[in-house]
Amino acid sequence: MLRLLSIEFHKLKYNRASKVLSIFYFGLLTSIALITAIRFDIGPIKFHLAEQGIFNFPFIWHFNTYIASGFKFFLLLVIVSMMANEYSYKTLKQNLIDGLSKKEFILSKFYMVVVFALISTVFVFLISLILGLIYSDYNEFPIITSNLEYLIAFFVKLVGFFSFGLFLGILIKRSAFAVGAMIIWFFAENMFKGYLFWMFKNNSNPSEKVANVMQFLPLEAMSNLIKEPFSRLSAVKIVANQMGEKIVKDFSVHFTDILIVLIWTFVFIYLSYTLLKKRDL
Hints:
Layout: H1 2-13, H2 16-30, E1 39-42, E2 45-48, H3 59-69, H4 72-88, H5 91-97, H6 102-135, H7 141-144, H8 149-172, H9 175-199, H10 206-214, H11 218-225, H12 234-242, H13 255-278
Antiparallel strand pairs: 1-2
Helix pairs in contact: 1-6, 2-4, 3-6, 3-8, 4-8, 4-9, 6-8, 6-13, 8-9, 8-11, 8-13, 9-10, 11-13
């Protein structure tokens, strides 16, 4: 494992675009702290976002992992560009000539995906912990350590998403087209969701029926791991109550959602290996 990772880090070291994108990605993760600076003072109305409870433990684990997961696209570019460079610079063929098996090659890429996801998770954990210790109204240890399952969900989400990108990079061989294919798949899932709503429009609970089907699609499954946190904010609930609406939503991380994403991750890696094994390089 260490040997395969050292090969990948050596390639990353000499890939300027990947290094720039990686630095930019972790810079964006750090920028979560800038949310504390959002402040509006309009006459008697004074609004400071950090004082709205978004950095309170344990809510901060949910909020920050949700925001950070929106930046995953930049690391996806690193994954697909590194895969595209394997074909462009013939390093894949050279690795195989030097004795690396196709299985080891795929494993080296998957290990890199896991390392990227793990580093991202640790990074978000440290940023969230620091912000929470500074701004949270609740600093008791049992409260701080509750809801940490959002970090697990964040890690699984990144591994699944990057594995999907790795598969597309191997399938298409060009980074721009691989990213384009990911975007097309995203729109295809949403179009299918729209079709399901139309198909179930006469049923008693169409949203539930659509969700029962959509949960098995890869991008939807990854999205279900960490649901939007804004509806949990007290300010949002107060506004909803004033409008006569009541927010009833399950924000928890479910094992079934994690399992579905893990299965898709295995499928993407297995298909990557099968494709590479059959392809004439």
